[in-house]
Amino acid sequence: MIQQTLTDGWKFRQLGTTDWLSAQVPGGVHTDLLSAGLIPNPFIGDNELRVQWVAEADWEYSLALQPSQELVQAERKLLVFDGLDTLAEVSLNGKLLGKAENMFRRYTFDVSHSLVPGDNDLRIIFRSPVAYITARQKERPLITVSQSISGSPYLRKAPCQFGWDWGPRLPPVGIWKEVRLEGYSSARLLDVHVRQQHQSGNITLKITADLESYVEAARTITARLRAPDGEVFEARANIGGNTTSLELEVDKPQLWWPNGYGEQPVYDLEIILEEAGVLLDRRSYQIGLRTIQLRQEPDEWGKSFEFVVNGVPVFAKGSNWIPADSFPTRITTEKLEYLIRSAVESHQNMLRVWGGGFYEDDRFYDLCDRYGVLVWQDMIFSCAIYPLDEPEFLENLKFEVRENVQRLHHRASLALWCGNNEMEQGWVEWSWNRPELQDLKKAYQKFFFTTLPEWISGEDPDHAYWPSSPSSNDPFNQPNAPDQGDMHYWDVWHGRKPFTAYRSQYPRFMSEFGFQSLPPMETIKTYAEPDQWNMTSYIMEHHQRSGSGNGLIVSQMTETFRLPKDFDSLVYASMVLQAEGIRYGVEHWRRNKHRTSGTIYWQTNDCWPVASWSSIDYFGRWKALHYAAKRFYAPVLLSLEDEGHKVAVHITSDINAPWQGQVQWKLATLDGTILQSGQQEVNILPFVSREIWEETLEISEELKRQVIFTAGLYQGKQLLSRQVASFVPIKHLELKDPELSANLRQEGNQFVIDLSC
Fold first, then answer.
1. Strand locations in 419-529, DSSP E?
2. Coil vs helix vs strand at 110
3. Where are the domains of the chain?
4. Phi and psi for 495 in degrees, rounded to 5?
5. What is the Cα–Cα distance from 143 to 432, expressed in whole angstroms?
6. pLDDT band for position 187 (50/70/90)?
7. Pairing of strands 220-226, 232-238
8. In terms of Cα–Cα distance, which of 183, 184, 181, 174 is closest to 5?
9. Is pLDDT at 737 greater than 90 in this prediction?
10. Domain 186-287 classification at class level
11. b or e along 107-121 (b: 16 or more beta carbons within 10 Å of the residue's beta carbon)?
């Protein structure tokens, strides 16, 4: 098949004006206007408010298109848009080819009789997404999150782009993915399905290829698999009709494992379509050989919710992923790799691609395959009521779902398809269950419990489907229950409960919980001037989208720390506070891993510079939480469970081998005087969590504010981790000034800091 990429030479203008501007494709109107100096940076100050007109206007793109000679000679010519954002009318040489209305779909137009040799005039008119949803909302109001522009559920576009409780109202417009011409004269590959059948000692790949033929002819399909060590496996079949199947035997397979459980060998699969020895088309795939299931079995606490890879239960350690930029075309491969590698460096093995963003592109899943990160994949529905009773809307969804499931089903990293985010919970616990909305409630149940799983299983019968997050998999019956399914726990943030409330929860799988912090000071300086460096200033509150979020941070801070002396210290303390809160919850659930099978904190990353729940800010700066995650997600975890004067030491192992080490503990005053000390040998079996030591310590009331308990986990002489517990709130400890001094020196390519006191 012949391909001609169409990235150069595009221009755009506001519809109805005469001045054309250079357009980047893939790209968007906002980023092109910003590059031209025609709008201010919407991430600085409150400039977001000054660019709202962009998404309220209509825009036109134009390209003087010259097809290659090879394409002109092809019998069948196709114009392919991998992504149009979102309401687009596509014309070629003055003829309307069709319309687009879904940013998550590929649109293909047959231009066999429209494309001419030489110059062709390709035009795309993008209609305002804001005007569209506003008009639909007036006709029939739907419920969505309060921070979003009303009516957003009517449009198949990333929900968070209309505003969220961590994101701005900046819905992009434009050609956000690749555009190309394709041509062929005989046949092309449409889709390839790959399934794995695991037997003892070998694996069979069952491959089905779908074709589109222009003429009937004898053709062959070849499947060629290259192992990481270079060994090649090959199978070939003659094609009868437009669908053919073949099997490929893989001897001595190298299994793919999640991060922390083994290696991630990746096989390269190539599907080749030929006719009389002439190449017609080819597809390439990245394959990891593994089995995965979502195990749900009755037990003493209800029903388990546990991912099992290659027969081994995996404790999911991860975070919730949101779009890495409000303007998706600015997300580079380097940024994606940095963020995913950062997750891996903090021992994460799962990312939940949250349903208020978009299906990530292939680069994201390539990286997850390579680094061993399982993907919980939400379909793109979140926190809103959608018009699921409208036939045209459902037909649009059918193409979206099938296309994205076909694209992702073969991924080693793919763990689960999930219907939506928090919508079942909305029907049960929020204000949705009104008499006038009952038809939409019935449509919800039919779609997420019948229609959508049928669509998904039709394309991918090998991965589990889950109707919503959270859910008990029983329509509208306790969707956030602790005894089955997954749980979202927001009583600490929204409910203003103390961090200790996490220990009252014993979910089967904790898929959302979180606490906010400010971003690092270096990031705040990019959007706020010094006169705005105050938690209640206008700009600081503009870059806080969770209502009274800044006040919640300060309120929780006063329960834990003394009020910081200045704004810089407050920013730092907010990040330490966030890390402490999430650590408190994760350690509790890891101690109870026999009951809870995973924790996914909210959230990994940011789409703009903002106060949020992220552990990595918009510019890639690790917050204290991400450094803490490297400790509380460590393969072997030391944690303390303290109540009153009683302290219990726990060891949790996620490794597939017995582990031996030693815990050394001491009760000491803040000036370093040791009051009690001891050590405990550790011998722990694979994948086990257990208490190894417990004692009620003798501490007088007078001494409580002057002592701390510390424990260190050692393997040989190496200190792996250290934990500290106090017997009063940290703010009440009578901390001494250690009179620290620091000296920085360079040794080779490293910097060494010497501290003394």
1. 464-466, 487-488, 510-512
2. strand
3. 2-183, 186-287, 636-756
4. -90, -5
5. 8
6. very high
7. antiparallel
8. 181
9. no
10. mainly beta
11. bebebeebbeeeebe
Both tokens of 486, joined, read: 């997954």
For the question of whether the overall pTM of this predicted structure is more than 0.90, the answer is: yes
The token pair at 475 is 């329509």
242 token code pair? 């437009």
Comparing 2-183 with 186-287, is the CATH topology the same?
A: no
The residues facing 272 across adjacent strands are 222, 282
> What are 131-165's pLDDT values in tens digits?
999 999 999 999 999 999 999 999 999 999 999 99
Q: What is the CATH number of domain 2-183?
A: 2.60.120.260
At 200, the pLDDT band (50, 70, 90 cuts) reads confident
- Listed in sequence order, the residues at least 6 apart from 23 whose beta carbon sits closer than 8 Å to its beta carbon are 10, 11, 12, 32, 61, 174, 175
H/E element, 629: helix 624-632
pLDDT in tens, 404-417: 999 999 999 999 99
CA–CA distance, 458 with 566 (Å, rounded to integer): 59
Q: Please name the CATH architecture into which domain 636-756 falls.
A: Sandwich (2.60)
Mean predicted lDDT score pLDDT of the chain:
97
Residue 545's Cα: distance from chain center in Å? 20
Of 6, 8, 1, 41, which is closest to residue 618 (Cα–Cα)?
41
Task: Give the Å distances, CA to CA, from 329 to 30, 354, 651.
Answer: 11, 19, 44
Q: What is the pLDDT of residue 214?
A: 87
Q: How far apart are CA 102 and CA 37, in angstroms?
A: 29
Closest CA to 205 of 227, 188, 189, 220: 227
| Cβ–Cβ < 8 Å for 54, 38 | no
Mean pLDDT in residue range 389-396: 98
* Sign (positive or negative) of CA dihedral 725, 728, 734, 740: positive
Cβ pair 726, 742 in contact under 8 A: no
Angle at 580 between CA 577 and CA 586, to 5 degrees: 145
**Residue 739 pLDDT class (50, 70, 90 cuts):** confident
- Enumerate residues 6+ apart whose C-beta is below 8 A from 378: 352, 353, 354, 355, 418, 419, 420, 421, 469
